[in-house]
Amino acid sequence: MHYPVDVFIGKIRDYDGSRPSAIAKVQMDGELELTELGLLGDEQAEKKIHGGPDRALCQFPREHYEDLIREFPEQAALFCAPAFGENLSTKGMTEHNVFIGDIYRWGETLIQVTQPRSPCFKLNFHFAISDMASQMQRSGKVGWLYRVIAPGKVSTDDPLALVSRLSDVSVYDAAAIAWHMPFDDDQYHRLLSVAGLSVSWSRTMQKRRLSGRIEDNSRRLWGK
Known about the structure:
There is one protein chain. A hairpin with a 2-residue loop joins β6 (31-35) and β7. The protein is globular. The termini are far apart. It is an alpha+beta fold. The protein has seven helices and 14 strands. It has helices at residues 63-71, 122-127, 132-139, 171-180, 185-192, 199-211, 218-222, and strands at residues 2-3, 6-10, 13-15, 18-21, 25-27, 31-35, 38-39, 57-61, 88-90, 103-106, 109-116, 144-150, 152-155, 160-164. The chain has one domain: Beta Barrel (M1 Pyruvate Kinase, Domain 3), CATH 2.40.33.20. Strands 1-14-10-11-12-8-9-2-5 form a nine-stranded mixed beta sheet. α5 (185-192) runs antiparallel to α6 (199-211). Residues 26-163 form the MOSC domain. One of its GO terms (molecular function) is molybdenum ion binding. InterPro entries: Benzoxazolinone_Detox_Enz, MoCF_Sase_C, Pyrv_Knase-like_insert_dom_sf, Tri_helical_YiiM-like. Pfam families: MOSC (PF03473), YiiM_3-alpha (PF03475).
């Protein structure tokens, strides 16, 4: 399968009442350079939780905007790509049919799915919906992140094409294991066994196995 893709990059901006963010992105056209840290010219405000080799690109399914418009009609005008700060926007790819470790060819590059996107409190501010991040996490409609395993030139006319599938753990499954289940050592071991899982998620799952407990996500979801 080949999936046409819209491409977006953004610069860091200041926001009254919230921290700086590069969530506001603009659509690109033509040829771009994809490095191991993402698209040249794309920025991330807080490198500890955004960006880096395992989070070089963010993709969000366009289908989810239709659901959000139905759920939040008063904010309908906001719900179109790239409102969630995604670099890549597609139809036909969702958390249910994209798997951790999947390798896609994009132009002359290769990119690999590393983890679901972990929604953070900045989304609450961005959409003026107090629990947006929490709602996204509960639904599993969060998108996913990539590492770049072969950098190079890409064009906004180049589709995404799956070239290797390395696991049976979908992005939705990974989100469910991390966020929707009570403590389950077997499922954490299953996720840790997946080729391509990000270092961050590998560390979190291993910490759970060692400590016997699930970490507190309230600061990420609520900024507190």
